[in-house]
Design a protein that fits this description.
Radius of gyration: 23 Å
Helix content: 55-70%
Number of strands: 0
Order of helices and strands: HHHHH
Distance between the termini: 42 Å
Number of helices: 5
Largest sheet: none
Shape: rod-shaped
Length: about 120
């Protein structure tokens, strides 16, 4: 079986049940509440099924994928990124490492809102 579930969704579901048992008065309800607390702690300690990538790691991946350290060498990107890039007036067009791809990742959300 290769099903993946969201750790956060599981914690939220267990929390929903825990909220129900907060006012527990019977021994059975108190035991159930304690079991849910243990499950929530256990779930929180599990590793994420999804890799957690930062912008630098993604920028390295993009540079390797496109075999180019500069995002501005590609159609579409070259039209808007130089207007937003923090390095446009300094080290452009020869950024250090994958700084250009990092700028692309930093400003791409702004570009989407500009187009709407």
């Amino acid at each position: 079986m290769n099903d993946l579930i969201s750790r956060q969704a599981a914690i939220e579901r267990a929390t929903k049940d825990h909220d129900f048992y907060k006012g527990a008065t019977t021994p059975a309800d108190k035991a159930r509440r304690d079991e849910l607390l243990n499950v929530m702690c256990w779930l929180g300690e599990l590793p994420s099924a999804q890799p957690e990538w930062n912008n630098h790691e993604v920028a390295c991946l993009l540079a390797e994928l496109f075999d180019d350290d500069c995002a501005c060498n590609f159609n579409g990107i070259d039209e808007w990124l130089p207007l937003k890039c923090d390095f446009a007036e300094t080290c452009c067009p020869y950024p250090v490492g994958v700084a250009c791809w990092e700028q692309y990742l930093k400003h791409r959300a702004e570009r989407r809102t500009d187009e709407q």
